[in-house]
Amino acid sequence: MSHLSVNHLLGIKYITKQDIELILDTAKNFKEVINRPIKKVPSLRDITVANLFFENSTRTRLSFELAQKRLSADVVNFTAASSSVKKGETLIDTVNNILAMKVDMVVMRHSSAGAAEFLSKRVNAKIVNAGDGAHEHPTQALLDAFSMQERLGDLKGKKIAIIGDILHSRVALSNIFCLQKLGVQVKVCGPTTLIPKYIESLGVTVETDLRKTLEWCDVANMLRIQLERQDIKFFPSIREYTMLYGLDKKLLDSLSKKIIIMHPGPINRGVEITSDVADCSQSIILDQVENGVAVRMAVMFLLAGRQ
Ligand code: NCD
């Protein structure tokens, strides 16, 4: 199979295992391309992509833009902070104005869950969700799966723990959908106030003890505490959170096996993981960033109907 079953990438929930495998296989070829002296292919030279970022981002925005440039697409960038959104323009008006300039694909990050899906039903362009509120962040889950596969091979039967602020995390939800489609056993770990009640209905197990979780897993994906989405206090203090759920080198080295450490970034060094953990040889955090470009190239290449 060399085609995706969808026209847009709105979330991992809406794609099949075959779609995931196709994207990850295609990304392998692109990883080879971006490690060549000339890191560019002409595949999307007839395509114009608009990156619409209504919410802050460093990694994801730069990663998408680099991926587009490596594919020779024309790129326009929009960030809400410096746009007419501040003058009261609606999302649909903003996007339709951009599309009137003949844009073929839109990569969008928005603080509202469902924003990408809303757009996909109303405008005539391919939509890639680069994060919608606390809902989904599909390319992050795909690059995470790609990075795990590089280390572990086939992920079927592997044990992956997602640790921290599950409640406010779109990375957690997209990872859960993606890993389950690939046959992984997923456990979430964090304070009960940061674990949504419905989570077990998604087929994951819940553990509140960090050490037990780390002893169980092959990979620990440490999430950032999303303070900007927390309107009430979910735990007494950052210090207490770190004492119970922070990973330091002492704890990591005391485990009975060597596990892989991941983090989607941005890291709060000293909160969810200490600097020596982030920078140690078990951490694949920078591989995740490198692989993000290859995976996003694959997603846009396939959505554009190339094979
Ligand atoms: C994540 C995000 O924005 O959803 N970061 C990212 O895209 N690399 C996670 C986060 O902000 O903690």
Share of helical residues: 25-40%
Order the strands across the largest sheet as they lie in space. 7-6-5-8-9
Which regions have little confidence, pLDDT < 50, spanning 5+ residues?
none
Instruction: Give the total of domains.
Output: 2
What's the count of strands? 9
Molecules bound to protein: N-carbamoyl-L-aspartate
Protein structure class: alpha/beta
* Count of alpha and pi helical runs: 11
Q: What oligomerization state is this entry in?
A: single chain
CATH classification class of the largest domain: Alpha Beta
Summarize the structure in words:
This protein has 307 residues and is α/β, with parallel strands linked by helices. It has 2 domains: 12-137 and 289-304, Aspartate/ornithine carbamoyltransferase (Rossmann fold, 3-Layer(aba) Sandwich); 138-285, Rossmann fold (3-Layer(aba) Sandwich). The protein is 38% helix and 15% strand. The chain contains 11 helices and 9 strands. The chain has helices spanning 17-34, 59-70, 91-99, 115-122, 138-152, 170-181, 210-216, 238-245, 249-253, 275-278, 285-303; strands spanning 48-53, 74-79, 105-110, 126-132, 159-163, 185-189, 205-207, 219-222, 260-262. A 5-stranded parallel β-sheet has the order 7-6-5-8-9. The relative contact order is 0.16. Bound molecules: N-carbamoyl-L-aspartate (NCD). N-carbamoyl-L-aspartate (NCD) binds next to helix 2 and helix 6.
Question: What features would you highlight for this structure?
Answer:
alpha/beta; Rossmann fold; 2 domains; four-stranded parallel beta sheet; 15% strand; binds N-carbamoyl-L-aspartate
